[in-house]
Design brief:
Distance between the termini: 40 Å
Number of strands: 11
Shape: globular
Structural class: mainly beta
Order of helices and strands: EEEEEEEEEEE
Radius of gyration: 13 Å
Strand content: over 45%
Helix content: under 10%
Number of helices: 0
């Protein structure tokens, strides 16, 4: 059974940068689409970024386009989210997720993913 563990969260000032990493154990991530989502209290989980199994395709929420970069390193069994020019409204709990189905696409819906990490807090102060 796969275990996804996010790391790299924390507190940063507005305009700053953070890099999140999602490390998998128990199953290789290669050939599977991955995604990042975020959630704030009382709200639904929100799509942030996704990457195809090959890493050649990426998709971003409009709010983070040009600020965030998603990438993967299948040799290390990790997926990363580089975040820059952070804004206070990006404060949330961030999760990574994997979709085990085949297919060369990226996916925006939380329901399309099969396994999730426990998430971590990212706080952007004004």
């Amino acid at each position: 059974q796969v275990q996804l563990v996010e790391s790299g969260g924390g507190l940063v000032q507005a305009g700053g940068s953070l890099s999140l990493t999602c490390a998998a154990s128990g199953h290789p991530l290669g050939h599977y689409a991955m995604g990042w989502f975020r959630q704030t209290p009382g709200k639904a989980r929100e799509f942030v970024a996704a990457i195809t199994w090959s890493g050649e395709g990426t998709l971003y929420a409009d709010s983070v386009k040009g600020r965030f970069t998603v990438s993967r390193d299948d040799a290390k069994n990790t997926v990363s989210l580089q975040m820059s020019s952070l804004k206070p409204e990006f404060t949330a709990f961030y999760y990574c997720a994997v979709r085990w189905g085949t297919g060369g696409y990226y996916y925006k819906g939380a329901y399309e993913y099969d396994d999730w990490g426990q998430g971590l807090q990212v706080t952007v102060s004004a």
